[in-house]
């Protein structure tokens, strides 16, 4: 039975980096090189959600250590995000992330388009037409 648990632990440890990083990196490169933008949105949404999840883990690390099934739950959630048949990352982005940004007024208007620069970014990095920074 000990060999089984050792095998299961090794499988679990290997699955995390493959599911969370290796496959998404590969799929992101393939998406960037494809003609369609639909897959680009899925993978950009994945990296946004994965980054947010990683940030939450850093902030709540001492609490998460007390949840023995956290890594398994995270692995299943991330698998749902990345598997093409579910398109979980795009779903979460469209239903949660985008809605929260709209709710809190980050986008200029409720008719968000890809060319619209969010207000918060506009205030941090104002677009200066016709002006370029020159170093002297």
Automatic annotation (TrEMBL):
Q: Which domain of life is it from?
A: Eukaryota
Q: For this UniProt entry, which segments traverse the membrane?
A: 6-31, 43-64, 70-93
Which Pfam families does this entry report, sorted A to Z? TB2_DP1_HVA22
Report how it sits in the membrane. Multi-pass membrane protein
Identify the InterPro entries for this entry: TB2_DP1_HVA22
Q: Where does this polypeptide localize?
A: Membrane
The main location is: membrane
Indicate the family of this protein. Answer: Belongs to the DP1 family.
Question: What name goes with this protein?
Answer: HVA22-like protein
């Amino acid at each position: 039975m000990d060999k089984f648990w050792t095998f299961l632990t090794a499988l679990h440890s290997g699955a995390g980096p493959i599911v969370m990083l290796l496959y998404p990196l590969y799929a992101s490169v393939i998406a960037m090189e494809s003609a369609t933008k639909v897959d680009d949105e899925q993978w950009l949404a994945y990296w946004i959600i994965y980054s947010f999840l990683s940030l939450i883990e850093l902030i709540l690390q001492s609490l998460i250590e007390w949840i023995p099934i956290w890594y398994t739950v995270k692995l299943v959630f991330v698998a749902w995000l990345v598997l093409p048949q579910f398109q979980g990352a795009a779903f979460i982005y469209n239903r949660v992330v985008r809605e929260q940004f709209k709710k809190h007024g980050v986008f200029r208007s409720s008719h968000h388009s890809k060319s619209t620069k969010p207000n918060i970014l506009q205030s941090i990095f104002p677009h200066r037409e016709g002006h370029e920074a020159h170093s002297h």
